[in-house]
Amino acid sequence: MEESVIEKELKIKNNEQAVMSCFQNSLNSLNCKQIKFDLQKIIETIGSRHCNQAITMKEIFDCIKQSKLSDEMNEELYMKMITCATQRVLQIPEDLYIALVNGLIQQRKEFVLTQLLQYKVIPDNNSIAAILLQQQTSIPCLYYCGLDMLKRMKNYSKLVDLYLMNNNISMALQIANQYSVEIPSTKVQEYIKNYNDDLLLYQLKLIFPELA
Fold it and tell me: Where does the record place the Mic1 domain (predicted)?
């Protein structure tokens, strides 16, 4: 079988500029099959023991991001990048994960996203957790995925803040007590102004006498 253009370029040592130019031409062709083939060949090369090309995953990602592909095709390429890079233990830039998460949310593919989160294709990360938590009203299931992510990362102070913001003061206190998270009384006072649970308010004043 005859070698493709990208394969020939990849065999030439320190040929990064020509390889990326070739990949850019592939992106401009809008031929999804060809783009995926070239993408895989590049990642296979930079992930091999005998790599002779100084091309980073970030460079590949930036090249795709700046192209004129559809959102759906971008999403397919991001998934291809993550899959190929994971198999070759290559470092994947955080921006790539964020772009994939944002793309899936915009296309209302929350089922696909929850599957990727569940099987750890998308790793636990504070930036990703923040994006998921922003979906509280629009896609509640992703909000809870964000909460679970914070728990796995043991970011208990952020969890306490979120529960306080949502007037779930009892849960905030439970986590704070369990994981020794300090809650300033001024912060509690800020969130109980419009709280009508007399029993909870009484309990809070026992914990924070300065609220009385």
Answer: 48-208
